[in-house]
Amino acid sequence: MDKQFSDFGIGEEIIKRLSAAGITSPTAVQQKIMPLVAEGKNLMFQSETGTGKTFAYLLPILQRLCDNPKSSNPVRVLVASPTYELASQIKAQVRLVSDVKCALCIGGAPISRQVELLKEKPQIVIGGPARLLELIHLKKLKADAVETLVLDEADRLLSPELRDATEGLLERLPRRVQLIGNSATVSDYTRKVLQNARDAIDRASEEKAPAERGKASGSKDSAGKISTDMAANGSKDAGAKDSGNTPADQNPANQKQAASAIEFVTLPTEDVLRKRITHVAIFAERRDKIDTLRSFINAVKPKKLLVFTAKSDQIENIASKLRYRKLECEALSAKIGKQERKSAIDRFRSGKVSILVTTDLASRGLDIPDVTHVVQLDLPQTADFFIHRAGRTARAGKTGMNCVIGDAYEMQDFAKLEKKLGLKVYPKILYKGKLTSPRPDAEENDGKEDKGKGKQ
């Protein structure tokens, strides 16, 4: 018998809202991760794109907040996101299934407005690590009350450009905080940095407790606070008095080990990249890439197409040339304003435009339904970025096409990537308005893929 959300402690109200959104049963990653989150485990989980990672952590967190309301408490859950688009999407999913108050705090937006939002006592705050850390430094966001921190797309949050802010955020949180991370790709480097950050929280707590004990002489208030800190840190004097703990939990060594341990969970691959996505390579000199893209669009007539480029200064150029050829599209980059970015995403998501040109800004975690085709106008520097780009299509059990338009050097790199990832890449040409194979014998071998993939 198939598992249901109710089997994982999700309440009737959330289930009703999930059903209204067409979500009736948990995915494999949700079945595996929801119980671990509900148990309060520190964990980092890896699962392919489009498998339902956000709801895997979000549903048990929301249920916990609903079951244990604390109206007088400040923010209880922080969700750190590498991009505005992903943060907005997470907030939308919170609102889809619950009435739990949440706030969006993103860099680039007026911080004064975000301070006002925090005065409304949201239970969940979602935002970039740098802005969340800034609000904590300004004492507008009380870190000591945070129960759970989620690092959504943890590998990106722990990359060199965001690592300092993310680690700074971690260091400001109490030892009891539950740490949850997820991504479609998790490197050994990410695991090491995450574990080190978790250990740093514990060290900070251990150093803090003796210092506060030294200040406690004669102060009733201070003594009470120290007792609380000692209990949280597994102190023998205070921890043994906590009637809510099991005997094993009362052991200080066990408490320290439990607090420090991060459970790494890798979900069995559904092989989306190889089984549900057709990979196509089209040769084009650098100067001809945009014309080749236009010819590809006219030949394939994609229902919904994401175009990726690593060169942010070329996004508007690509979009304007497509518009000049009567191909309506939106351009999305970090250089445009928040409202413009939101408008571009909304128009693409709703289908008002069928083409979105962007950088890797949109390749991380963003779930836009029914993307049938992805075009990469260059190869990213790492295989992880390639996987995240391609993974914007073939989501939720559907199929799709990923096309790389590259010059001779990029085709060589693509061949190496094909071997590394175990892909089957089909070379194609654009001929007489059609996407076709360069040789008749190749056409016979892969013609079915041309017709079958990218149709949803």
Report on the structure:
With 456 residues, the protein is of the alpha/beta class. Helices cover 47% and strands 15% of the residues. An eight-stranded mixed sheet has the order 10-11-9-12-13-8-14-15, sandwiched between helices. The protein has a seven-stranded parallel sheet with strand order 3-4-2-5-6-1-7, with helices on both faces. The model is unreliable at 216-255 (pLDDT under 50).
Short characterization:
By secondary structure, the chain is an alpha/beta fold. It has 20 helices and 15 strands.
* Structure annotation, total helices: 20
Largest sheet: 8 strands, mixed
- The residue ranges in which pLDDT falls below 50 over 5 or more consecutive positions are 216-255
Number of strands: 15
Secondary-structure content class: alpha/beta
Distance between the termini: 28 Å
Descriptive tags:
456 residues; alpha/beta; 8-stranded mixed β-sheet; 7-stranded parallel β-sheet; 20 helices; 15 strands
Secondary structure topology:
Blueprint: H1 12-20, H2 28-38, E1 43-46, H3 53-67, E2 77-80, H4 84-97, E3 102-105, H5 111-118, E4 124-127, H6 129-137, E5 148-152, H7 154-157, H8 160-171, E6 178-183, H9 188-214, H10 220-232, H11 236-239, H12 247-250, H13 252-260, E7 263-266, H14 272-275, E8 277-283, H15 289-300, E9 305-308, H16 315-324, E10 330-332, H17 338-350, E11 355-358, E12 373-376, H18 383-390, E13 400-406, H19 408-421, E14 425-431, E15 434-436, H20 440-452
Parallel strand pairs: 1-6, 1-7, 2-4, 2-5, 3-4, 5-6, 8-13, 8-14, 9-11, 9-12, 10-11, 12-13
Antiparallel strand pairs: 14-15
Helix pairs in contact: 2-3, 3-4, 6-8, 9-10
